[in-house]
Amino acid sequence: MKFHNYFEGLFNKRKVSRQFIILFLTVFFIPLLFISIWFLYDSQKLLTNHYKEQSDSDNLRIRSILFDITTNALNLSEYFASDTELLQLLNTTYDSKISAQVAMNSYKNRENALRRDTSISSIKVFSFNDSLNNNNDFYYLDSNYQNTDWFKKASTTHSGYWYVEETMDDGGTISLSLVLYKKVMLVESHSYAILSLTISNNYLKNRIHNNTLNSMLCVNDSPVFYSSEKNYLGLSLPMKENFFPTHFTYSGLLEIDNKQTIGTVSTLLPYKTDDFLYIVTYSPNALPEIKNIQQSYIVTIGLLLLFLMLLFFVFSKYFSNRVVALKTSMWQASHGHYEMIEQFSGNDEFYEIFHDLKIMINEIKKKEALLYQNQLKKQQLETQQQQMEFKMLASQINPHFLYNALETIRMKAFTNGDREVATAIKLLGKSLRYVLDNTGTVSTSLAKEIEHIRTYICIQKLRFGARVNYEEHIDPDIHLEDYKILPLLLQPIVENAICHGLENSDEHEGKILLSILKEEDCLCIEVSDNGIGMTKEQLSSLQEKMMKKNLSLTQSIGLYNINQRIRLCYGDNYSLHISSQLGKGTTVRLALPLLQLQTTTNGLYEINMK
Questions:
Q1: What is the DSSP letter of 230?
Q2: Which H or E element spans position 529?
Q3: What are phi and psi of 207, to 5 degrees?
Q4: What residue stretches are annotated with the Histidine kinase domain (predicted)?
């Protein structure tokens, strides 16, 4: 209650223009501003998640590729480590370079493996067998090799390890490559050899390259050996975060080379090794694209708010000016100044009020003239006053005036494109005409009464929509035009079924059924609904009220009137009967004589047997 009073005071104590401003701020501007802020926040969150998911997906794809490549390389190294031909070649001491060359040339497994597997660019063997020439990728482990980092680690590691080293292709281009080193034990010669498998950079590029996302790869704390941006090759990962030497997974904002971006960092543990292979995928254009999208959203929302403010300002100014013009005209009229403006813009309710005000002022001017004349004729004052009041009362109840007024309103609604309102007014006029035409009459045709019920149902459907459904079951032997009943007998029953029976029904569930049939010498009319129904106590109370008139009651008076009219017209043998069941609905049954009523010239009626 306090809130209601506060809300009314917020508007009632201010002028219309300020009321519009308050209404605009509370109903449009502030809610739309909050919605816009939420939308911007949510859209940024969605875009960020989109780029994160995109980066995660690409990172997972590269992890899968690298796992296949490294696992395949390790399996291939284990194959050569147990290859009897290779072990025999390495264990044999050759007495001449020619015999060693012949033995190496006859060994084809290495060449066959390179032809079959495009992911491997080279396979080299390093051993302490000095009888093997440095040819066909067989190398003698002299002091230069033994001082290298890769040899020191490979000689102490039996499971193999991954290393990044500089390689040179056939064109003389130097690049970084990922190399697997594997120690091969030579039992017969009590020695060992080192096997190296180099991963093809072209193969990596063809499998990993993505046009929209960038990626970088490094192993352990070695420099980057693969990067979509070549300027990062040979450098450490250009990120402030230190991931080494742990198993790490991260997805979100990254700072690469002092630039913010969205990406994913994950760690792959190659098969049967203790190395860490770090995979970085990121979208260099993610944050600029998000920023551009957000800016476009902000500009669009700003233009929308500006347009709404401008539109609301123009409308409030237009509305306020019309209110002021109407207020000024009424103030002038209240002070006896009847010279009003002739033009008033618009064609809405304000224009109608202004038009009615002009009519009222003209009427007042006429009345003042009449009063001035009546002062000269005191003898005729009372008579003229009574005539004027009679004319005013007559104009209020004149059916033609009502029909014309309704038709004018209907045409205005139709002209304005509001067909639903035009249809509603048309139905109302049709119903009103039937009521006025049958006021004071003693009979009407059953066809006209049923048509009136259909019109009434159409009006109610405008209000309740699909909650009110109507069906008719009429005996095909009954011709509605041949039978007449008391007018306005069925409409109150149908109204009662809708207002009380279907008041709590859900959409598409309410149903009114009108049944008309012959039973012996009676015309039986039933109005049924599938509404809430009544308990036995409620039904008993209603039947008691229906039989006894009580002016203090506002409900069930319609049923009382119907019952009384039936008894007075047809006799005590005919009346209405009500049956109801809680939760299943109510049925009102009228038992009328199967008669034809004909109105006589003196307004009474006579009954003829059908």
A1: G
A2: strand 522-529
A3: -85, -35
A4: 490-596
Sheet architecture: strand order including 585-593: 469-474, 511-519, 522-529, 585-593, 576-581
Q: Where are the alpha helices (DSSP H) in 260-397?
A: 286-334, 349-376, 378-397
Is 43:294 a contact under the CB 8 Å cutoff? yes
Q: Which residues pair with 263 in a beta bridge?
A: 252, 282
Collapsing DSSP to helix, strand or coil, 462 comes out as: helix
Q: What span, in angstroms and rounded, lies between the C-alpha atoms of 566 and 215?
A: 94
CA distance 430 to 59: 75
544/558 Cα distance (integer angstroms):
14
Residue with tokens 């264990």: 91
Closest CA to 110 of 139, 76, 71, 75: 76
* CA triple 97-103-107, angle to 5 deg: 140
Nearest to 567 by CA among 577, 559, 575: 575
Predicted pLDDT of residue 403: 64
Instruction: Give the three-class secondary structure for 26.
Output: helix
Indicate the DSSP class of residue 25: I
Q: What angle do CA 344, 350, 353 make, to 5 degrees?
A: 95
For residue 399, whether the previous peptide bond is cis, meaning omega lies within 30 degrees of 0, is no
Report how far residue 240's alpha carbon sits from residue 254's, in angstroms, rounded to the nearest whole number. 9
DSSP per-residue codes, 165-195? EEEE-TT--EEEEEEEEEEEEETTTTEEEEE
Q: Which helix (H) or strand (E) holds 539?
A: helix 536-547
| Adjacent-strand bridge partners of 185 | 192
- Strands 138-140 and 120-127, by their bridges, are parallel
Length of the chain: 610
* Sign of the alpha-carbon torsion through 424, 425, 428, 429: negative
Name residues of the chain where pLDDT drops below 50.
3, 380-381, 384-397, 554, 597-610
- CA–CA distance from 491 to each of 351, 452, 481, 494, 510 (Å)? 37, 8, 18, 5, 17
The residue written with tokens 């969150």 in the block is 45
- One-letter amino acid identity for 46? L
User: Residue 156's closest CA among 143, 146, 164?
Assistant: 146
Q: Is 283 in a helix, a strand, or coil?
A: strand
Distances (CA, A) of 261 to 11, 215, 224, 264, 267: 51, 13, 19, 10, 19
Reduce the DSSP state of residue 196 to 3 states and report it: strand
Q: Tell me how many helices (H) and strands (E) the chain has.
A: 18, 19
H or E stretch at 103: helix 97-106
Residue 32 amino acid letter: L
CA 515, 517, 518: angle at the middle one, nearest 5? 160
Residue 25 CA: distances (Å) to CA of 33, 40, 308, 442: 10, 20, 11, 60
H or E segment at 430?
helix 419-438
| pLDDT for the residue numbered 392 | 38
| C-alpha span between 510 and 500 (Å, rounded) | 11
Residues 109 and 84: their CA atoms lie apart, in Å, by: 11
Q: pTM score, two decimals?
A: 0.51
